Amino acid sequence: MRLENSLHAALSRSELLLHYQPKLKLDTGELFGYEALIRWNHPQMGMVSPAQFIPIAEDSSLIVPIGDWVLHTACAQARRWLDRGDLLGRMAVNISHRQLKLANLVDSVHSALQHSGLPAECLELEITESMAMDTTQETLDTLVRLREMGVHLTIDDFGTGYSSLSYLRKLPIDGLKIDRSFVAGVVQEPGDAAITRAIISLAASLGLAVTAEGIEEASQLAFLREQGCPFGQGYFYCRPMDVARLDDWLAARR
Ligand code: G
Ligand code: G
Ligand code: MN
Ligand code: NA
Question: Where in this chain does the record put each EAL domain (predicted)?
Answer without folding.
Answer: 1-254
